[in-house]
Amino acid sequence: MRYPLTALLAVAVCAVMAGASSFATITDWLHDLDEQAQDQLGFTAGVPVGSTVWRLLTRLDDTLLGNVLAGWLRARTPAEATTPRRYRTVIAIDGKTLRGARLGDGRQVHLLSALDTATGIVLAQVTVDTKSNEITSFAPLLDAVERVLGTLAGVLFIADALHTQTGHADEVAARRAHLLVQVKANRPTLFKQLKRLPWAQIPAGDRTRDRGHGRRETRTVKAVTLHTPGGIAFSHAQQAIRITRTRIVAGKTSRETAYLTVSLPAGHATARDLQTWIRRHWHIENRLHHVRDVTFREDLHQARTGNGPAVIATLRNTAIGWHRTNGATNIARATRRANRQPHDLIAAVTSSYPTTQ
Fold it and tell me: Whole-prediction pTM value?
């Protein structure tokens, strides 16, 4: 029997939004629906068995699926009534290994994702070549993000120290975008240059204080425009940044210092802006990867066939993005609510779901 592709995709999306964490539970969710709900999804002549759902999903192009679903989420996300004058799209980049998933030869699957930190939508995700690492996947990820947004002009990408690469800075600049990266010992010359800047003579640009869970933390940001001939040993860098984090826990004080560079000049990236943007990079770990692990039990899912591991991760990204754009702060609670109200969920999804096959 043949089934509509849009119906199969719709049930996969809805089931994961309702908490399904594997291909088997996607099928279970579909089979547990009443006839009216199955009709809503487009299954008017019976529902597929688990092997049919599994075969389709594991054969999908995961990057294309991610682009389609990210575009769909963005299209249905309400635009802000007023856009702040200094608003800038900030995209966090980070990788995650699917610990339970394996390829045919036993190697683990590693995915590199780009998260819009304002909306909580994963704009793109690419599978890292098992014979390489995240560095070679950076440009393909930018390509995928650009397909969703249309242009990268003015966008700020934030990445960890692994991506403090001259080639990355050139790739981003060529697309008229900007890059904010941390600098560690993997770039020893650059790290020494930043560390030796006269930080004691540079006034603090921004300082924040937080309390919670028996901890007090102060974060002080200093930023300086790079006037030295040739700047520093990193392409397109406009400012050097130092962040000092001071924590007091149970009466004990600890201090940590981090150095970063950004390709935006001071007029477009104040110390307060930098403080906000740098903290947003944690969104991809705390609000995406952690949720996939805890709520959807991703590391326990032993997907091994075809593009299955990346496809199911893309569906989880979509579910999290959907709930975030609907105002949810607790994704586990949001999935339980969606599971209790399948008719409402299906109606909301299918009323704006792509009809192309």
Answer: 0.90
